[in-house]
User: What shape does this take?
Amino acid sequence: MTLLVTGAAGFIGANFVLDWLSSSQEPIINLDKLTYAGNPETLASLQGDARHVFVQGDIGDAELVSRLLAEHQPRAVLNFAAESHVDRSIHGPGEFIETNIVGTFRLLESVRGYWSALPVGAVSERDGVLADGSSRSETAPTQEGFRFLHVSTDEVYGSLAKDDPAFAETHRYEPNSPYSASKAASDHLVRAWHHTYGLPVLTTNCSNNYGPYHFPEKLIPLMIVNALAGKPLPVYGDGMQVRDWLYVKDHCSAIRRVLEAGRLGETYNVGGWNEKPNIEIVKTVCALLDELRPRADGQSYAEQISHVTDRPGHDRRYAIDARKLEAELGWKPAETFESGIRKTVQWYLANPQWVSNVQSGAYRDWVQKQYQAS
Ligand code: NAD
Ligand code: TYD
Assistant: This one.
């Protein structure tokens, strides 16, 4: 069996691939466009590993996706590919519409074409006989066994007031940024492809992730990288906006669990009950750096904090109610925020070359040249 995973040169997708292949022999076809956020260097440890096949391409390229599906016969498609940064979506929403909405639509159509041609029925575990009476190897995908898992965000639910209960799966969609609106649209398309065509879909809506290999434009890696470079730490507005943080490997374990046992057509919220105001996050990062890599002048990195103009339309608070995933599928995060943030800061201290390469696009450009040459 095989998985087709899109956007897996990005932060969460790459963590998912590394995590998956650390405990499974099941190969992954990784389809990634290598935008500025895609960094194949994250997956350099898999070079020469036949279980990882990297393909540079767009989820919206129907011909390419259909060819990959026909060739590799995956039992599931996991869609991580997206434009993911809210600030970029404010300055230039076009790419967000193209990839997150049009790209997801095209991907769904390619997958529907592949899925509808698969043999009907689930393989019997006992004798390898399909429900329609034909026999088939137990390793071949079937319509019933196939899954399309769409990775989405809690931002589709909009913003909470201070005392509102956390977002449950039943919360209405109220996206406020071009990014969250485009992800909300993609969630609706996925839902519609299930209800209209019967495509076996699953959707996960996760809170803010953090951890290794995070592109340093998002809050936590940006603060670490700027602090070490002696630059200001830009906190938007009063810094009292609340986000709910989840260590990326815990997101990966949740996706594995939903893929394995999620009910078709359902959505599952993923979060670790870690609501924190931004300013507290920044101060925690500074305190860890003070301990692990003290400034030469003996001052705290917190001296570099600088309150700047707020993001337009900035959502005040996100919080995830993950009880459905916990109760139905028995998922639990392994990390506390304290253990996860320490590991994250330690990882960035140990990997300055990765940071500098991802900032300059060096490794991505190198990979692209290899493709052009071959
Ligand atoms: P990321 O920006 O780090 O990575 C996105 C990846 O998708 C990149 O490798 C990029 O090259 C690729 N990509 C972009 N457009 C593509 C296209 N048209 N075709 C193929 N590949 C394309 O994002 P991330 O943080 O890893 O997020 C992954 C997914 O998880 C996204 O769907 C995002 O909406 C969702 N999500 C992210 C968070 C978070 O905190 N980062 C939280 C919840 C949900
Ligand atoms: P970000 O990491 O961009 O994720 P998202 O907008 O998807 O939640 O931002 C997390 C929070 O940190 C958000 O409230 C905006 C804030 N923020 C800053 O205060 N300064 C920054 O430089 C960045 C990038 C974000």
Notes: Residues 3-364 form a domain with the Rossmann fold fold (CATH 3.40.50.720).
